[in-house]
Amino acid sequence: MRKLLGLALTTALLAIGCTLINPSTSSQTPAAASPSAAMAELHKDDVPVASPIAKDVDPDTVTTEDVTYGTLGDVPFTGYLAKPADASAPLPGLIVIQEWWGLNDNIRTMTRRLAAEGYTALAVDLYDGAVADNPADAKTLVQAAIQNSDRLTQNVVAAYNYLVNDQQTPTVGSIGWCFGGSWSLNTALALPTELDAAVIYYGGQVSTDAATLEPLQMPIQGHFGSLDTNPSPETVQVFESVLNDLDKDAQIYMYEGANHAFANPSGTRYNAEAAELAWERTMAFLNEYLQDPS
Prior knowledge:
InterPro entries: AB_hydrolase_fold, Dienelactn_hydro, Dienelactone_hydrolase-like. GO terms for molecular function: hydrolase activity. It holds the Pfam family DLH. By secondary structure, the protein is an alpha/beta fold. It has a single domain, classed as Alpha/Beta hydrolase fold, catalytic domain (Rossmann fold), CATH 3.40.50. Helix 1 packs antiparallel against helix 5 and helix 2 packs antiparallel against helix 4. The protein is globular.
């Protein structure tokens, strides 16, 4: 059934791509006029440079390659694929979604870490090769991406199809941080009955609209900071309440004293205690629903 996600689903998703998460049903920082402005305010003092606390894996434990996993309008979707070096059979798949900086070294490191945990991890590139190293450029890139959300939707759907059809993954989940957190939820909304699990790290735009969230059939895990303003703790509480009211399988965590981007060791808001606890919870969640879905 998974392999039947072809042209019909792709065409349908093009029609709904712009409506998955939008300002009318999402949280906004009060002082910000747009999602990109909200992210820019939160990251104005950040730098996407890996610090010594960034954890990587032994390069001998994983294999990596740059791959093309689809095309749209003759423009390819390219990403970064990582798998355990000793993999002898198809493994659960993960769609790994970048922060607002793009598919940079930090996201590649996280992709290798996920692979080392026993996953075929595909880091998608929502910026088509562009990467920012400062907030001004990141804001420009994220604005352009948001304005072309149809292509982003097609990107994540192509990633799903690639993992299922080319990598033969028996299950597929999504995980993303910041802008990627929003798009982890968007991936779930684009594949409401196909995706097996979704992990959201402080996604700025989280829908609180019951009609939007009602189709979701997969378990959802979310990690948010109590000091964050995009989304605010109040919005996260509503998000959790709506999911619970809809009887969804949702694990939503709020980390006291943690801010937006608390899990990014290359940023200025890194919170080691919160990040390590969130990682433990993420691994337990993914293992439960992707490694042993029965």
